[in-house]
Structures are given as structure tokens and as C-alpha cells.
Specification:
164 residues, alpha+beta, six-stranded antiparallel sheet, 4 helices, 37% helix, binds methionine sulfoxide
């Protein structure tokens, strides 16, 4: 759904946002806002960050997002498409969520989804999740764009103590 030119323009803007943002949280908020505003099929855009509390199972916790509130504010790693992306460290693209038994419904309108892990020093620390009301909305260019965004957040986290 991204075209080569708008994905390229957006990457330039995203790099500028990354350079300007005063904190990782500010950067994540700016990314979700920009993606949801400019990519018309990106209907819900949000971050989940990995919480590793001592003595407790690792949990994905909802961070900055744009779109309707989701019932899934905390997702264990063995659940959902979100859990699959975080536990395997692989981008997951689902063209038809109704056919994926892992899918945790957020909105009845959602038809397709992409989840991209965020890495700091080769470890998954979170992910960027996007839902679309359109089936098969996420093509190769979208995947590259979303992976680029996840990379910006990973780099920023790596350069701050929060990423340690
Ligand atoms: N659909 C996700 C849950 C998060 S909501 O989309 C915001 C999943 O299956 O993990």
C-alpha cells in the first residue's frame, strides 16, 4: 500500500523526527502519529514494549498508540500475533486475520496486521504493531517502512540507559 515515493519521503521525515525527539517516548509518539496520519490504510498504530519483571513472565505492555483503545494492553509472549513476533524476533505479516488462530481481536474492522520487533543489541525489547481495515494491506514497501521505524526506536534505545 505504500508507494516507493511516499515511503521514501516518509523515511526522510522519520529520520528528522528521530534527530529532533527529546526522548524515546517522544519519538515513539511522533512515529505513531505520522504513520497513522499519512498511511491511509494504517488504521491502528502502536508500540508494545517488553516488560521483564523479576519472577514474572515477560509481558508486552502497550506504549504510545494512535487509533481506538485496545482491550489488549498487556500481552504474554505466547499469545497473539504480537507474542509471535516478539518471541521469534521476526516480522509477522498477516493478510487475513480471520484465518490466523493466533490473532487477538482489537477491532472487528481489522482485516490485516503487521508486527515488527524492535531490537537493542540483538535482543527484542518491544515491537511496532499496525492494524488495517483492509485485507493484505502490508506489502514489501510497508514492511520496509515499518522495519525502518522499529530500527529508529531500537537505535535510540541503544543510545540511552533505558535500552540497557
Ligand atoms: N492483534 C494483536 C493484538 C493487539 S491489537 O491489534 C492492538 C495480536 O494478535 O497480537
Amino acid at each position: 500500500m505504500a508507494t516507493a515515493s511516499n515511503a521514501k519521503d516518509l523515511k526522510t521525515e522519520l529520520a528528522e523526527l528521530a534527530a529532533k525527539a527529546g526522548s524515546v517516548h517522544e519519538l515513539m509518539s511522533a512515529i505513531v502519529r505520522l504513520l497513522q496520519e499519512r498511511m491511509l490504510k494504517y488504521n491502528w498504530v502502536g508500540f508494545y514494549m517488553l516488560e521483564n519483571a523479576p519472577g514474572q513472565a515477560p509481558m508486552l505492555v502497550l506504549g504510545p498508540f494512535e487509533g481506538a483503545m485496545t482491550p489488549h494492553t498487556r500481552i504474554p509472549l505466547h499469545q497473539g500475533i504480537c507474542g509471535a513476533a516478539a518471541s521469534t524476533g521476526q516480522t509477522v505479516v498477516v493478510d487475513d486475520v480471520s484465518k490466523d488462530p493466533r490473532y487477538l481481536a482489537c477491532s472487528l474492522e481489522t482485516k490485516s496486521e503487521i508486527v515488527v520487533p524492535i531490537f537493542v543489541r540483538e535482543k527484542v525489547v518491544g515491537e511496532l504493531d499496525i492494524d488495517s481495515h483492509f485485507p493484505a494491506a502490508f506489502k514489501q514497501e510497508d514492511r520496509e517502512l515499518v522495519e525502518y521505524c522499529a530500527g529508529l526506536v531500537g537505535q535510540r534505545l541503544a543510545s540511552t540507559s533505558a535500552g540497557k
